[in-house]
């Protein structure tokens, strides 16, 4: 089992961001906690469960054992990680319709 972090290429609010993904949701939450990322930052999306982390945390994530992924050189591996992240998505329960 492993945790992964892609290149910090996404720009938002003046920062560059990377995606933190894992083979299991439990591993993902554990690494996010070690990085000091609050649980409310968890992205439970059909496109893949992940945390967005600012670029300055990427080196720390790697130092803590996260496997770096490059969108340029690790394309097949990155596709497999994203596929696993998509498979972990759990739809939010919907409230019953009002009568």
What does this protein look like?
The protein starts with a strand and ends in a 12-residue tail after the last helix. The longest helix has 13 residues, at 75-87. Strands 1, 2, 3, 4, 5 and 6 form a 6-stranded mixed beta sheet that branches. The protein has helices at residues 25-34, 58-63, 75-87; strands at residues 3-5, 10-12, 15-22, 42-43, 50-54, 67-68. The chain has one domain. Strand 2 (10-12) and strand 3 form a beta hairpin. It is globular, with a radius of gyration of 14 Å. The protein has 99 residues and is an alpha+beta fold.
Give the gist of this structure.
The protein is an alpha+beta fold and 99 residues long. The chain has helices at 25-34, 58-63, 75-87, and strands at 3-5, 10-12, 15-22, 42-43, 50-54, 67-68.
